[in-house]
Automatic annotation (TrEMBL), chain A:
Highest taxon of source: Bacteria
Bilayer topology: Peripheral membrane protein
Keywords for the protein's UniProt record, in alphabetical order: ATP-binding, Nucleotide-binding, Transport
Family matches, as NCBIfam families: oligo_HPY
Organism name: Microvirga brassicacearum
Record CDD domains: ABC_NikE_OppD_transporters
One Gene Ontology term from the biological process aspect of the record: peptide transport
Family annotation (PROSITE patterns): ABC_TRANSPORTER_1 (PS00211), ABC_TRANSPORTER_2 (PS50893)
Membership in a protein family: Belongs to the ABC transporter superfamily.
Pfam families in alphabetical order: ABC_tran, oligo_HPY
Protein name per UniProt: ATP-binding cassette domain-containing protein
TrEMBL record, chain B:
A GO-annotated cellular component: plasma membrane
Domain ABC transporter: 4-251
Stored InterPro entries: AAA+_ATPase (IPR003593), ABC_Ni/Peptide_Import (IPR050388), ABC_transporter-like_ATP-bd (IPR003439), ABC_transporter-like_CS (IPR017871), Oligopep_ABC_C (IPR013563), P-loop_NTPase (IPR027417)
UniProt name for this protein: ABC transporter ATP-binding protein
PANTHER family: DIPEPTIDE TRANSPORT ATP-BINDING PROTEIN DPPD, OLIGOPEPTIDE TRANSPORT ATP-BINDING PROTEIN APPD
Length: 325, 318
């Protein structure tokens, strides 16, 4: 990093998280490494995308980044402050600045709350006293910036459409003026038409409010469209970091993701190569590169020695013994 | 004669008419995409063809459905049972709901060919393992003896496809078959289905909300909106020059490589529920080309060769 590079808003170093599991009543516990040794800088005002398939650790990473769950190893610094060094009260205070938008707008809002109550809940939790008039103004403002009419304030979540609910989820995340939002598959459960609306809204909010996003998705097409840089994860590890959406992927797994992402144009049909095999179980990771079993470029080296993530001079990072040119 | 001919199909559930004026043809060896947002009537169309409407208290109240010359709307449940699973098969979105959790997956495939083709136990097992191999299930003989919970989502969906194929049907209806799967697995399942249609001369109806899946796999497309056909055409022209604003907007919801951030447009508003179908063109409240006439008069279906469109301004959407 040169001196001219501004300090990142969030800096993640060597982050790992293990989960224990018992496979049966009498068998010994097994350990699942959901996230292994992830290091990542999230620059201010940018959208950093994390893409990967189920079990790649992207949602665990999202929760670790906000200290919603504890790391087994490694650190997360927000504006230089190590989250692990904070006590409960200090962490809660910092949480105003970093918020999360969840995939499922149906379960993210308490069904017994009106939209007004849901939007005021963050203030209550944070102990921010609001007069009735202030509360009214806040609710009106929050609904307005996410493109909802104030007339829905006294409705219950079940009276709203999926898109409206996700807008409420975003409004709630914005209630305490955060600077950093983690967006965990915010459009995955929505129709494509509504998905595009929500992405347009998130883009406008980022511009208007100067927000920084960590955008988690399984959809490489969407990530390429929406993000400034793209982190590709496979079975808990970063396998490639594309410094820009235009960067040409070099890791065979990222290439496979590209090939699997269809385009809305029948003249650009994909030749789907047969990725042999399934994604291995995270309980039982192979010794070398986790992708080796499915990779057509894999050599003996790949099956015995895990490739380290290394950066080229264009800030393009790859963890592969045989990257594609 | 097309394998499946649907003409002016209307479906009613009690006094409501969620589906109206649906027409399309499907030939052998062809993949027809049925697209639209949730609530546009895609799954109802599938249920009408499968004769499953009584399950939800619905029935066909208009139009005709002909499969290989057989009038489906006139069939009794017993006659339908001989078609369903045998000549017409359904693949649903969630493989977990199609599989019995307490039966070995191989047994579930075997049952289909034993029941419909009269195979013996050993014939059925051999047939199932061959099918699983064709669907690229690794170690098919081992997987044959496993239970659904032992398999990944992509593998379970292959088992469901094998069940659909086991009686050697002529028509397969796949209702969002890959929506619940990871992208690399989705791509492989779509490829497998395309290969099956090409190799076996099957006819496939692929129901999806995703225009990029249509572009990848389908020969023809029917775009449904709020229970009616908005537009239908061959896949080339429908993407190159959509004639209905809804088709154009659906295509515009998917980003293309290199697309400038901020240029992706959604479609404002939502699909109306059956109680709230607006008068005139049902898309008019969400359409940026709508004029007075659109809110007053439903557009007629214009038919021009393979192209069908219902829009007062079908030239304007280009």
């Amino acid at each position: 990093m040169t001196d001219s590079t501004p300090a990142p808003l969030v800096s993640i170093r060597g982050l790992s998280r293990e989960f224990g599991s018992r496979s049966g009543l009498f068998s010994s516990p097994r350990v699942l490494r959901a996230v292994s040794d992830v290091s990542l800088d999230i620059p201010r005002g940018k959208v950093t995308g994390v893409v990967g398939e189920s079990g790649c650790g992207k949602s665990t990473l999202a929760r670790l980044a906000l200290c919603l769950i504890d790391a087994s190893e490694g650190s997360v610094r927000f504006e230089g402050v190590d989250l692990a060094s904070l006590n409960g009260g200090q962490l809660r205070k910092l949480r105003r600045r970093m918020q999360m938008v969840f995939q499922d707008p149906y379960s993210a809002i308490d069904p017994r709350y009106t939209i007004r109550e849901a939007l005021l809940e963050p203030f209550r939790i944070q102990g921010v006293g609001l007069s009735a008039a202030e509360a009214g103004t806040k609710v009106e403002h929050l609904l307005d910036i996410v493109g909802l009419s104030v007339t829905i304030a006294d409705n219950y979540p079940h009276q709203l459409s999926g898109g409206q609910k996700q807008r409420v989820g975003i409004a709630r995340a914005l209630a305490l003026d955060p600077s950093f939002l983690v967006l965990d598959e915010p459009t995955a459960s929505l129709d494509v038409s509504i998905q595009a609306q929500i992405i347009a809204l998130l883009e406008r909010l980022r511009r208007d409010l100067g927000l920084t996003y960590l955008f988690i998705s399984h959809d490489l097409g969407l990530v390429r469209y929406f993000c400034d840089s793209i982190v590709v994860m496979y079975l808990g590890r970063i396998v490639e970091i594309l410094p820009s959406a235009e960067s040409r992927p070099r890791h065979p797994y990222t290439r496979a993701l590209v090939e699997s992402t269809f385009e809305p144009d029948p003249t650009l049909r994909r030749v789907v190569t047969k990725l042999s095999g399934e994604i291995p179980s995270a309980f039982n990771l192979p010794a070398g590169c986790a992708f080796a079993a499915r990779c057509e470029h894999a050599s003996d080296l790949c099956r015995t020695e895990r490739p380290e993530l290394s950066k080229d001079r264009h800030d393009h990072a790859i963890a592969c013994h045989h990257p594609i040119d | 004669m097309p394998l499946l001919a649907v003409r002016d199909l209307a479906v009613s559930i009690s006094r409501l008419r969620p589906l109206d004026g649906i027409s399309f043809d499907l030939d052998k060896g062809e993949i027809l995409g049925v697209v639209g947002e949730s609530g546009s009537g895609k799954s109802l169309t599938a249920m009408a063809i499968m004769g499953l409407l009584p399950l939800i208290g619905g029935r066909v109240t208009g139009g005709t459905l002909h499969f290989d010359g057989i009038d489906l709307a006139g069939l009794g449940e017993n006659e339908y049972r001989r078609l369903r699973g045998r000549r017409i098969a359904l693949i649903t979105q969630n493989p977990m709901t199609s599989l019995d959790p307490i039966l070995r997956v191989g047994e579930q495939i075997d049952q289909v060919s034993r029941m419909h083709l009269g195979f013996s136990d050993s014939q059925a097992k051999k047939h199932s393992i061959e099918l699983m191999q064709q669907l690229r299930v690794p170690e098919a003989a081992t997987v044959h003896g496993q239970y659904p919970h032992q398999l990944s989502g992509g593998m379970k969906q292959r088992i469901v496809i094998a069940m659909a194929l086991a009686a050697d049907p002529e028509l397969i209806i796949a209702d969002e078959p890959t929506t619940a799967l990871d992208v690399t697995i989705q791509a492989q399942i779509i490829q497998i289905m395309v290969d099956l249609v090409r190799d076996r001369g099957l006819a496939l109806i692929l129901i999806t909300h995703d225009m990029s899946v249509v572009a990848q796999a389908c020969d023809r497309v029917v775009v449904l909106y709020a229970g009616r056909v908005a537009e239908s055409n061959r896949v080339g022209p429908i993407f190159a020059s959509p004639r209905h604003p809804y088709t154009r907007d659906l295509i515009g919801c998917i980003s293309r490589p290199g697309q400038v951030r901020g240029s992706l447009k959604g479609i404002r508003g939502n699909v109306p529920g059956v109680l709230d179908y607006p008068p005139g063109c049902r898309f008019n409240p969400r359409c940026d080309l709508a004029q007075m006439v659109c809110a007053e008069k439903p557009p007629e279906m214009e038919v021009d060769g393979a192209s069908m469109v219902a829009c007062h301004f079908s030239e304007g959407a280009r």
